[in-house]
Specification:
The protein is α+β, with helices and mostly antiparallel strands. The chain is 26% helix and 17% strand. Strands 4, 6, 11, 12, 16, 17, 18, 19, 20, 21 and 22 form an eleven-stranded mixed beta sheet that branches. A four-stranded antiparallel beta sheet has the order 27-26-25-28. The protein has a three-stranded antiparallel beta sheet with strand order 1-2-3, with no helix packed on it. It binds a DNA duplex through helix 4, strand 19, strand 20 and helix 7.
DNA sequence: ACTCTGCATGGTC
DNA sequence: TGACCATGCAGAG
């Protein structure tokens, strides 16, 4: 440890620490809220590096024993031409002066997905995209879709990307001999956690770059894109049928227009037939000069230094590049001295640009194809990516015209998180994490160009959230940033639709094909006397509980009249199937007398305010997704209703439905988790007290002969579900457990009871928990969960009641 | 006169 | 204020 001295620290957002030893260095950017990494211990403890810390060996190095090695940003010496090797000598990472150039690259992830998982990419994690494509390389983004890194964990497909040559590296610019060192690990908001690292690989100054790729990729029906992570997690997505896909991956960094391309989605513009790994590097919007006849493409300095071979002489080196068509080009990669700096250019690109039919305003992308380490150059027509690079700017669907000039001119404000998923065709991307998703992103998505926006801000702003775009971020922007992850959690597949689940970086990704997710009224799964699966649902109007088929997908405002399965109970005036007493045993949370709903307390008001904020975000997310760019523009500053149609409670649009359904799923999971804890406590209690008979009692009471609660989730879960329902009802919300899709953002801070009372809706899991806790008597000594109470009160018949009550704990 | 090359300038961040 | 980069421009070919 002693040899590892911090070379640089402190960044406006986050802390960058550089450790160098024996010509090896590592830049590590800490998350904003993380404690400053001041020693290697912490890094090691966080599992950033080797699985085993080699205390006997100084410096970070290619760890043979762990198999973790720096990720070469550029092909190893063997793959680099002689001239390049020559140059590398000039750029050796010498001891403490190792870094020059880029500083921390801001990484952001889709909030929710990884928020829970708290995924932290291993600094050495490589997230190239293993692509198996049969459609050839798509350079124009007409068929692009990216999978990327931080599923959010930073995201957000990871996120530091370089667009137009600018890394989002914060104040920390570590350059050595003109080579940028990137190491983004920035996850300000709940989002995809992406880390990018450039490590000096050896004395010959080859450096490694771990890039999080994020790009959008739209694949043809036969294409397959898979992201192969060094962590052995793989993502295989049948692109052609991806309707809604949750990607949760940690990504690496890429640069796009100076921004590292590193989202959770890897742009697979390059689609070789054979399985190859493509690591998106960066992209740049062609300027007039770039696209001019001169044939010189100005390369973003940091990108050039990070991903192109190091050059010591202005003459540079010839660079072989493949285009999407597989054609090989040779450009001269060189630089001009400029203000004591360098201006990197690719010369001789005109033929290639023309071949790709690119022009000023279009985007040229650079990726690296493995094996071989060849550079692949792609392009994307600007027309296909409306305002894509302008990110935060006001954007109108399909048009760049509304992009703030400041953003357009410099391709700044490129922000947003790579679209996590997308809806084929014109469907909005349900799963795009609103967080960090710029309006432009939304716009591009809605326009069938599922473009991934590098969150990277050209000028090294370092944070998507703090884009240098002149337009001040509005409250709605923030809401968007916070809501998509949550919104994602609300989406669930339609009835009978089984999502394909695959795991990426330990995160489950649900993929739905061809069927938009839906939202249904919460129900309580159960089994009837014949052992048949069914579910209980409460009428929206009379609050009576009815049995419906297990596969029944009910609208959020389901009422008795819609009970087509039991016409004898298709009216609110019809009696319930179960006697009150029995029903209460089964559904203890039921409170049939709405008049007895407890009054809203201050705490409740706060709780509801939280809900409202949450829902507002969801609402915004919905709008953004649903209405594309125009919606985004609306949501930015105005209440949805002011410029766009409201989503009614009964709205059955795909987005609303999806969110509602997803919410239910999420709720189930949450409840299950909580109940597992409760159950665990109970089990412990039982073991301690040795009261098996009480357990029996519980089961007996919870499983009446009629309407037995299904064992699908276990008893605990059932109980919580009931409580959940009860809480909903007890919210005194006129909306009764529905998501208010039209909450005004302006009211986010409005915590008045009046406000709350009018915005009752389904609770976000966390909100539910909060409410749950708030409902517990403060002096009851109840801990975080009812389990505590259960332990205190014992188990058995008290179990159910202790968890449910008129909105509180009995 | 035109193109290419290298550098300088100025705007933006 | 400095870095970056788009573009202009002058000199050379």
């Amino acid at each position: 440890h002693s040899v590892m001295a911090p070379l640089a620290v402190s960044a406006s957002r986050g802390v960058a620490c550089v450790f160098a030893a024996k010509k090896r260095a590592l830049v590590y950017i800490l998350e904003e809220d993380e404690d400053e990494l001041t020693d290697t211990d912490s890094a090691y403890e966080e599992g950033k590096f080797c699985d085993a810390f080699h205390s006997s060996t100084s410096g970070w190095r290619c760890c043979e024993s762990c198999g973790k090695t720096p990720n070469p940003a550029w092909p190893p010496p063997s793959q680099v031409g002689p001239s390049q090797l020559e140059k590398t000598e000039d750029f050796s990472w010498n001891t403490s002066s190792s870094f020059v150039g880029s500083g921390p690259v801001p990484w952001r992830i889709a909030p929710s997905l990884f928020k829970e998982s708290n995924i932290q990419s291993d600094a050495h994690t490589k997230i190239p995209f293993e692509i198996d494509v049969s459609g050839g390389i798509d350079l124009f983004g007409t068929s692009e879709r990216l999978l990327a890194g931080s599923p959010e964990k930073k995201q957000e497909f990871s996120d530091e990307r370089c667009f137009n040559g600018k890394f989002r590296v914060g104040p920390f610019d570590a350059l050595q001999n003109g080579h940028a060192a990137l190491n983004p690990k920035d996850q300000p908001l709940p989002s995809i956690n992406i880390q990018s690292t450039i490590l000096p690989k050896n004395d010959s100054s080859n450096f490694s770059v771990i890039t999080a790729s994020s790009s959008k990729t739209e694949l043809d029906d036969t294409s397959q894109l898979s992201a192969n992570f060094s962590t052995s997690q793989t993502l295989s997505v049948p692109v052609g049928k991806q309707v809604g896909t949750h990607y949760r991956m940690d990504g690496e960094t890429q640069v796009r227009n100076g921004k590292v391309l590193g989202d959770s989605r890897g742009r697979n513009q390059l689609l070789p037939r054979s399985k190859s790994v493509i690591t998106p590097l960066f992209e740049k919007t062609l300027s007039a000069s770039d696209a001019g006849r001169i044939g010189r493409l100005v390369l973003p300095k940091k990108c050039a230094e990070a991903y192109f071979p190091p050059i010591a002489q202005p003459e540079g080196v010839p660079l072989e590049v493949l285009d999407v068509k597989g054609k090989e080009w040779v450009f001269q990669f060189r630089f001009w001295p400029n203000n004591n700096s360098r201006m990197y250019v690719l010369e001789g690109i005109t033929p290639c640009i023309q071949s790709l039919k690119l022009q000023a305003g279009d985007v040229v992308t650079f990726s690296r194809l493995e094996p071989g380490g060849k550079l692949v150059m792609g392009g994307r027509k600007s027309s296909s990516v409306p305002s894509s690079d302008q990110g935060d700017g006001a954007v109108i669907k399909g048009s760049n015209s509304l992009i703030p000039e400041s953003c357009q001119a410099k391709n700044k404000c490129v922000e947003g998180i790579p679209v996590i998923g997308y809806m084929k065709g014109k469907s909005p991307s349900f799963f795009q994490p609103i967080s960090h998703v710029s309006k432009a992103d939304i716009g591009s998505i809605s326009s069938e160009i599922h473009e991934t926006k590098p969150p990277y801000n050209s000028k090294g702003n370092g944070s998507i959230l703090f884009s240098k775009c002149k337009r001040p971020r509005t409250e709605n922007d923030i809401a968007l940033n916070l809501s998509m992850d949550e919104a994602q959690g609300l989406i669930r597949p339609a009835a009978k639709i089984v999502a394909s689940v695959f795991v990426v970086e330990g995160c489950e990704i649900e993929e739905f094909e061809d069927t938009a997710p839906v939202i249904g009224r919460p129900t309580i799964p159960a089994t009837d006397a014949f052992g048949k699966q069914m579910q209980w649902v409460q009428c929206e109007d009379c609050f009576k509980w009815r049995k419906v088929p297990q596969d029944a997908l009910l609208p959020s405002e389901w009422i008795c009249s819609e009970n087509v399965w039991d016409l004898d109970r298709s009216r609110c005036s019809d009696a319930e199937e179960l006697a009150v007493g029995k029903l209460q045993v089964i559904l203890p949370a039921i409170k049939k007398d709405s008049s007895k709903r407890r009054e809203i307390t201050t705490k409740d008001a706060e709780m509801f305010a939280t809900q409202e904020r949450h829902d507002t975000r969801v609402n915004l997310a919905i709008q953004a997704d649903d209405e594309g760019i125009s919606a985004s523009a609306d949501s930015r500053s105005n209440h949805p209703s002011e410029k766009s149609p409201k989503h009614k409670q009964s709205c059955d649009c795909a987005i609303c439905s999806s969110l509602k359904h997803r919410f239910r799923t999420l709720m189930d999971k949450y409840v299950k988790q909580q109940l597992e804890e409760v159950g665990e406590s109970i089990s412990q209690k039982l073991n301690q007290q040795q009261l098996p008979e009480q357990v029996h009692n519980v089961e007996t009471q919870a499983v009446p002969d009629t309407g037995n609660i299904t064992s699908t989730w276990g008893e605990e879960r059932k109980i919580v579900c009931l409580d959940y329902h009860n809480m909903q009802k007890s919210s005194s919300s006129p909306l009764k457990g529905q998501i208010d899709l039209n909450i005004q953002p302006e009211r986010e801070e409005d915590v008045s009871p009046v406000s709350e009372s009018g915005t009752g809706k389904q609770l976000h899991p966390h909100a539910t928990e909060k409410l749950f806790m708030q409902q517990m008597p403060s002096g009851s000594g109840i801990g975080n969960l009812a389990s505590t109470r259960i332990l205190q009160d014992g188990i058995g018949a008290n179990l159910l009641s202790c968890l449910t009550v008129d909105g509180g704990i009995q």
